[in-house]
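Worked example 2:
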Amino acid sequence: MKQLVSICSVLLAAWCSSQAQTLLNQSELIYIKDADFTVKGDFQNQGKIINQGTVTVSGNWTNGNKYLASTGKFILNGDGTQIVRHNKDSFHILVLSGSGEKIWQEEAEVVKEVSFSTSLLSTQAPGALIVRNGGIISGASATGYVNGLLFREGTGLRDFPIGKGGKFLPVTLTNIDGSNDVMLGFEIKEPNTGAQPGSTVKSVSQIRYAELIKRSGTLNGSPISITIGSDETQTPAQDVIVAESNTQNGVYRNLGQGSLTGSVITSGFSITGSFFVLALSEPLDENSVFIPNAFAPTSSNIEEQLIKIYSDQLAPEEFEFLVFSKWGNVIFQSNSLAEMKATGWNGINKETGELVSLGVYTFTARGKFVNGKPFEKTGNIALIR
């Protein structure tokens, strides 16, 4: 049977009998165990609350002293605007219901779960919602999401159900590589004035951007998925990419298109910057990559002595360059795009360590363009004197 224990009976009785709009706990200990404690109005806590049951508040919530989440559930279910000041304490389970907007004016963290339904959670600086490692977010949708700054802790896949200006624009880091204590935050901001397209980037959205904030730990990288807003239509679809920059109004680099499903685009490469936008790539194909069809190792011109790759439109990831003999044996191999752009192949057989004989050799180069699309080129190389 549910029960409520160790609660100030005078305070509770006064609230229940008067049905006051505000419940004030001035200095008492309220211990809720296996019980439902409902406040139909504002709740101000200047004492101490231990929650091992369920607390429901339909009005503003102000924690001016101490709230110990323990194993309890905290429900904000107002149909009007609810102001939340939680004094940087933790919630174990946080439920956001009712139709009213929840305005976060201080940081607060969730340990196990935050559940959305039809409520918008808006953060006001310095407010932020923090979901700790192991905590989950459920029920987020176009009617219930974070309008502001959301932090999540830990590695692997982390989704950030955020939005701006009435639009649900979630961001996902699909595979965070870093330390277990890495804590990352995202917020959608508008507009994106001053942003400049970089190499191989045709244009970047001036409407909005997603800002990444690293609070703690080490981030080595992750692909990123962003949502294309209904006001950000970009065509042709094959040229739509994610672009990043280290500054909001800086030059944006091409992160490519790993996939495009509906209104969600995932980058082809891992992030290194802090600002992310929807962009269009310059059209790329194998003709944008130049590989000479002949070289002369004994030439007096050093550029004619080598087979190099000439292009600024290839990505270093997953690169491979192979040269085959007329019998189909691999006589040279490189998995370094930087090496092939700088020193290339000088005609030495990797097996014998000797210069190959005059003749024609077949090559294959494969990898990715900077927009994430696959690249492969096959041709012939002639070694001449």
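Residues 9-281 form one domain. Helices lie at 9-18, 337-342.
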